[in-house]
Amino acid sequence: QLQFVESGGGLVQPGGSLRLSCAASGFAFETYAIGWFRQTPGQEREGVSCISSSGSVTNYADSVKGRFTISRDNAKNTVYLHMNSLKPEDTGLYYCARAQFCSSNLIRPVRGSWGQGTQVIVSS
Predict the structure, then answer these.
(1) Closest-CA residue to 20 (of 76, 73, 83, 67)
(2) How do residues 37-49 score in pLDDT, each as one tens digit?
(3) How far is CA 12 from the centre of its chain?
(4) Is 19 within 8 Å of 82 (Cβ atoms)?
(5) Distance between CA atoms of residues 11 and 121, nearest Å
(6) For residue range 50-69, what is the model confidence (pLDDT) as tens digits?
(7) Is 90 helix (H, G, I), strand (E, B) or coil?
């Protein structure tokens, strides 16, 4: 059974940092690109970042370029999102999922079940 478990969120002041983790199971993790997505109330879920199956290619939404870094450990079936210089507009519920498209122009998830997500709140 495909499963994603996100963790690492919390309350942080503007300018602070967080590291999110995504533990995946139930599929051949090392053969899929993985993406991070976030959702805020009243808005559609948006792609934040994605990483290729090998980890050699990464892409980011313009709003987080230069501040966020995605990485993965295929031995641990885990993807990370290092978030620096956080802004209030980064606030949201963050999810990970397999990425159907992972490019500089499009980060789209494979349709399927989502995990519980991890909440990030950036506020003073």
Answers:
(1) 83
(2) 999 988 999 999 9
(3) 17
(4) yes
(5) 5
(6) 999 999 999 999 999 999 99
(7) helix
